[in-house]
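Q: What would this chain look like folded?
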Amino acid sequence: MADPVWRRDFPLTSSGEDEVTRREFVRFLVLASGGFAAGNVGIALWSSLRSINTGEPRPIVALDRVPVGTAFLFSYPTGSDPAILVHLPGNELRAFSQKCTHLGCVVYYQPARGEMECPCHEGHFDADTGAVISGPPQRPLGRIDVEVRNGTVWALGAPPPDAAR
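A: My prediction, written as structure tokens:
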């Protein structure tokens, strides 16, 4: 009587299995780790070199929908670029890219502290200037110039990189 098909496909002994040496296994681990590291470096470089505010002026929201001390989330310059409009005390408006400059997590407005916070790695940015206060980020948030036109807040694009604020 012939052996059942399952016994031929799944031998009970190791004689039918390929042997993997420790050297091959370590080589695989090193190559996989190197691939992941290179991927992370590539993503970090892409996100840090990407220009965030190259869009055309466009309306964001009616000013009366964003009371003082609150924030409004929108997308700028494209629908896949999260941004945040903050209505600061003193009736000042600021808008920034919502992506943290460390690893691209989204930042949130903390009105009690007057800060933008990145919850991923506890990065903190000044809500008035976008400057780094603490945490791992090394660069300020990407700023978006805004102005009010007939009761509507408009995004105008990025200020020049060397513009003093």
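Residues 22-49 form the longest helix (28 residues).
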